[in-house]
Structure formats: C-alpha cells, structure tokens
User: Fold this.
Amino acid sequence: MRLVVTGLTGQVSRALQELRAADIEIIPVGRPALDLAKPESVLPALRAAAPDIIVNAAAYTQVDAAERDTIAAHAANHEGAVAVAAAAAALNAPLIHLSTDYVFDGTKGAPYAETDAPNPLGVYGASKLAGERAVAETQPHHVILRLSWVYGPHGHNFVRTMLRLAGERDSVRVVGDQHGAPTCSTDIATAIAAIARRLAAAPEDARFWGVHHLGAGGATTWADFAEAIFAEAGARGGASARVERISTAEFNAAAKRPACSLLDSEKAARIFGVRLPEWRASLGACVERLLTDTAPR
Assistant:
C-alpha cells in the first residue's frame, strides 16, 4: 500500500517517514514539488506519487503567528486542504486529513466528542476548521483526525522548547490553567497506519468516513507537562529547570487558546480499533531521543 504524505518536515510526516511496516510504503511529497500555497502544484505532485491513500499532514501550525499572518494560515490550512481533497477525489484515493483540538473553545469542561459544535478562538483554529469543512465537501471518502498537543522527536514542539530552555535558565514560566493531552507523533503515525489498513481492507464501510478524535489518554496542564519533561530529562542526565506556574492571562499570548481541549477518542477506538497510550507513556523515549540527538559528538 502506497501512503502518500504531504509535507516533508512536519512532526507527523517525519514520524510516518520513520515508520517501519512491511505492508506500507511511505511516500512523502512536499515543497517545492507540492506547495499548499500554490494549489496548482498539488494534483500533479500527488498524481506522480501514485497514492493508494493520501495523508494531508502539511499545515500552517504557528498558532500565535497566525494572528498576524491570516492569509498564509488560510492559504495552507483552508485553500491548501481544498486542493489536496480535490486531488484525492480526482485520483480516487481516500484522504486522511489532520486537524486540531483548537477548533474548540475549551468551555465544555469535559472531553469533546465529534458531535460537539466547534468554536475556534483564533485564526489557526478557524483556518483548520475551514479546511475540515472544505475537505468534507470535496472528497466524501475522508477521515479527518483531530489531534491534541502534538509533540515528537522532530520539528518545533513544546518538549523540544522546554529542553532548550532548561539548558539556558534555572526556571521556566509555564501556563498552569490550560488542560489537554500531549500526544506523541510516533503514536499518531502508528495509528494512521492502522487506520489506512482498515480503509484499504474495507473501503465500502461507510462508518469510516467523517471526523474522528485521536488524542492520548489522560489529561494534564502545560505546567505539569513541563515538570514531567524535566523529570524525564533529569533521570537521563539532561538539564532540568524549576517550573513557575502562571495563568493564561499572565502569559499574554497573541492567540487565545482553549482552557480545556481534551478529546474523547472512543469513536476511533470503536471504529478503527486504535487507542493511543496514556500521555506519559511515550514521553520518556522522546526525551531520550532528543537528548541523544543534541548531545555533543
């Protein structure tokens, strides 16, 4: 099975590229051949890759920068998603499209189900929601996966930032009143492979198509997540720092973020048989790899 993945350097794309599965060939396609900001490049690039299934992992993910760069965020996350979905339909290839928990406003006070009404607080979430809706309208054979607090051994993410800051200072100010579930990109890649196998085995199963939530088990805050990162780093001889808990208001980020963006992932478990580990389970391996990758040689 040829799984064609948009984007070369994103967290999930890189995790998929490292996936070792005898029955799946991962074909990454990205700039300059495929550029979501240039919709005319999408179909030729995907056609050349000859996909059985397409994973749209390319996106504009800079949450705060999106507030001042609205055009670029929508170009990638909305118009770009339309181009990928249209190409998938033209090539008769099912589409697995990655989205975000930030389509919700965080006021529910409990994990969000797929049936809950989205209400994004910022440009990033709004652009991803627009992309979701465009994908659904353009390619009926779609699986939209909303992900939560993604981190991993590649790309820009919270774990990498905390490890860098621990090497620069004794204490780090981290928001303690936002709740979510940190989800490792390697676990997401494994789940995507499992979903792709189900799609290939039973493409006529109408239950597959639509929105599915895919988050790690459990819940935490950014501050507690930071403390867990430093504990894992310290146990491996890496630098750690003291966490100074602050409020969302004190952090004063450009983009508003949901206070609680936990996802109810039971639908994906029921339909695809995938359930991600509890959020702490994959953290140690990721921290160890990041420490190894950045160690002097």
The two ends are 38 Å apart (CA to CA). The chain is about 40% helix and 15% strand. The chain has one domain: 2-156+182-217+262-278. Residues 2-156+182-217+262-278 form a domain with the Rossmann fold fold (CATH 3.40.50.720).
